[in-house]
Design goal:
Elements lengths: L3 E5 L3 H14 L4 E5 L2 H10 L3 E6 L10 H9 L5 E5 L6 H7 L4 E4 L4 H13 L13 H7 L3 H11 L4 H8 L3 H15 L4 H10 L7
Parallel strand pairs: 1-2, 1-3, 3-4, 4-5
């Protein structure tokens, strides 16, 4: 089945390069491009035949590893391959912790990128490194729903319930319900503690 592949990156030229890599590996696949995290989440939600997402961490609307968490929550069965210039020795491990199947730097050669795409589509490990078990808190964050993640990111941004409700097109009561669920999952008592936990996990990572 050809299916579709989502390329999420805010640089048009790099999207074009990734599209060439995808065409070499899966020539019959339909390529969907997105330049912001919001556009990527919308495209992922609307593509029933999605087979793979390639994601840049440094995109408009993304904070730290939140793009992985959000897209993984939207499509938990679709592999996410991070192709990014994000720095940090633990970037690959953190990316996997939030749901990615692999991490490549943007300076990887085309053959390496094609191999990673091929492996992700085949459901085989992209990295040969043995995966470490996820810690419980990261597992819970990775298990939040897309709306819960959007609410948590808005809290990280210092927004009030009324502002969050307006942005997401939901009621303040619904925002409060989501916050209650988030705090329960993260085992914290208030929104400030929830924000601290999220920051400690890299959702607020500066890069």
């Amino acid at each position: 089945m050809p299916g579709s592949i989502l390329i999420a990156d805010d640089h048009p030229l790099f999207r074009q390069a990734l599209a060439l890599a995808v065409a070499a590996v899966a020539p019959r696949a339909r390529v969907i491009e997105a330049g912001t995290l919001a556009a990527a989440a919308k495209a992922a939600a609307e593509a029933p035949d999605l087979r793979l997402i390639t994601l840049d961490l440094k995109m408009p609307g993304a904070i730290g590893y939140s793009g992985i968490a959000l897209l993984h929550a939207e499509k938990p069965d679709v592999p996410i391959l991070v192709v990014s210039s994000a720095e940090g020795g633990n970037a690959a491990e953190e990316a996997r912790a939030f749901g990615a199947v692999g991490f490549l730097r943007k300076d990887a050669d085309l053959a390496r990128i094609e191999d990673a795409i091929r492996a992700a589509l085949a459901g085989t490990p992209v990295s040969q490194r043995k995966a470490e078990p996820l810690d419980p808190v990261r597992r819970e964050v990775a298990g939040l729903t897309p709306t819960q993640l959007r609410v948590l990111l808005a809290v990280l941004d210092g927004k009030l319930n009324k502002q969050i409700a307006h942005e997401l097109g939901i009621s303040e009561a619904t925002v409060k319900a989501h916050m209650t669920a988030i705090m329960r999952k993260l085992d914290v008592q208030n929104r400030t503690q929830a924000a601290l936990v999220a920051r400690s996990l890299g959702l607020d990572l500066a890069h």
